[in-house]
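*** Residues and shapes ***
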Amino acid sequence: MPKLRQSISEIYEKLGELMNEYGHNREMLNEMLTRYILIDPVLRRLGWNTEDPEKVLVSESISLRSKNRGHPDYTLLYKGNKVAYVEAKKWGTISSIKKKKISNIMRQKDVQQLSRYCKANDVLGILTDGGAWWVCNFRGKTPNRRIKRIDWGDDPKHFVITELLKLSPSRISDSLNG
């Protein structure tokens, strides 16, 4: 775990620089660039190899309860099982929302989309724009419950690193059970 913590600490610094560079021009980073520049590096450092289809599926077609199909941006697999769907949003979509507006943390459309994906397969949901990571539990009797908010811009470095480590492959099952 110390190597993983060091790796996340390094990416924290690097992404901080990138967010400072692009933060003033949010129009520059569309969703695809946000994924490439901000989200993919974090997933890889956490141990989710975005180039290994046994660990991460990109834009997987999934069945929904309504007999329709969905396409989460990322499907995270641990020991062959789906454990989380990650929905990527354009930089600044989520991280620009301050703690005072927690009840309005995400656009309703994004929450409903992620909720449909997660409920259909009983997995965690992660909504991120690279700067903020919202881990949501749509399982059980309390759907749409936010588990954790992790924000590069608002939260202390130690908190960001500690909470992101909980999303590593070896620890994410704890989030499913907690």
Notes: The chain has one domain: 2-177.
